[in-house]
Amino acid sequence: MSEAEEQRWVTVMLDKLAAQESKRVLGDDELAERAARLSAQYFEGRARPTSVRWVTNQNTRWGSCTPAEGSIRLSHRLQGMPEYVVDYVLLHELAHLLVPGHGPRFWRLLEAYPRTERARGYLEGVVAAERLPHPPGARGD
C-alpha cells in the first residue's frame, strides 16, 4: 500500500469513527440490560454481572472484569463503535465471569457469537490506525 493510499484509508476510517461517535451512547443501565440479554442469548443466562459500566480510565484495554466482584467495565473508547463490537467486548467480559483466563474453554464460549472474528478485526484496525504517524495538520495539529 502506498503512503497516499494508506493516508486515504486512515482518513476514511477516522471519518467513519467520528460519524459513529456522534450517535447516541448507551447509559450504564442500558449497558447492564444489554449484558443480561447477551448472557441469556449466548451463555444461557449463566453470566450474571453485579455491575456493568463505562469507565474513562482504560486507555489500553477495551474492557475488564473482576470475577470475584462480578463487575464489568468497558472503556469509553468503545462508545460510538458498531453494536457488534460493543457486544463482542461485553461477551468477552461476561465469559470471564464463567472462565477466568483465556484458555481453550474461554474461547469456546466466545465461538457462540458469530461476529467474534469480525469484531476482533475491527478493534485491531482501530489500534493499528491509532499507531500510524499523522502528518502535521492532518488532525488539527
Shape: elongated
Helical run tally: 5
Give the topology string: H per helix, E per strand: HHEEEHHH
Q: Can you tell me the residue ranges where pLDDT is under 50 for at least 5 consecutive residues?
A: none
Number of strands: 3
Largest sheet: 3 strands, mixed
Task: Give the helices and strands, then pairings.
Layout: H1 3-21, H2 28-43, E1 51-55, E2 63-66, E3 71-75, H3 83-98, H4 104-110, H5 116-131
Parallel strand pairs: 1-3
Antiparallel strand pairs: 2-3
Could you explain how this protein is built, in words?
This protein is mostly helical and 141 residues long. The protein has a single domain, classed as Zincin-like, CATH 3.30.2010.10. The protein is built from five helices and three strands. β2 and β3 form a beta hairpin. α2 packs across α3 and α3 crosses α5. The longest helix is centred in the first third of the chain and has 19 residues.
